Amino acid sequence: xxxxxxxxxxxxxxxxxxxxxxxxxxxxxxxxxxxxxxxxxxxxxxxxxxxxxxxxxxxxxxxxxxxxxxxxxxxxxxxxxxxxxxxxxxxxxxxxxxxxxxxxxxxxxxxxxxxxxxxxxxxxxxxxxxxxxxxxxxxxxxxxxxxxxxxxxxxxxxxxxxxxxxxxxxxxxxxxxxxxxxxxxxxxxxxxxxxxxxxxxxxxxxxxxxxxxxx
Length: 215
What we know:
The protein is 39% helix and 23% strand. Helix 6 (140-161) links the parallel strand 4 (125-130) and strand 5. The chain is built from 7 helices and 7 strands; from the N terminus they run H-H-H-E-H-E-E-H-E-H-E-H-E-E. A 7-stranded mixed beta sheet has the order 3-2-1-4-5-7-6, sandwiched between helices. It is globular. By secondary structure, the chain is of the alpha/beta class. It has a single domain (15-214), classed as Rossmann fold (3-Layer(aba) Sandwich).
């Protein structure tokens, strides 16, 4: 979920950032995550997606792109169990988790990509998950383009490491390029659905594309 910058947060806040802060403080999922011991409210998004689409099972090999602070890896690591493994990666640091191997760096760089591939030890990947978002500039057109670029790279990686019939879950922001991206995912997976988990804020343009059955 990382690749997201909070630089300048403590500068004078706009009305929109004040609204975000109020929402965050009063968000029931934020409070629930604190009680349940999850690193972020985003955990409940993956929990719901997994309940609906039966994504994660014991013994699976999962790759989590943009994993910090680690809530999705927490869920995936718990579900794959001792016989499974999660390979997580982010440009930001992430504290260790049980059944999770973390690689810090930009997965779009060849050296980091190679580290991820090496960590797989030649085993086929059952599932690629991504809750990434780009650094936000505040310019909608540029931010949407950056978002689509990231998810295109995530799809490229999924295509290169998933086993046949493997699955893919990625967060995408609706806007320019969204429809074309959905079409691209459909060319690689037998079934594609678009989800809006309850934990996803209603006003957010984010949705989750679930690709089942890698061709």
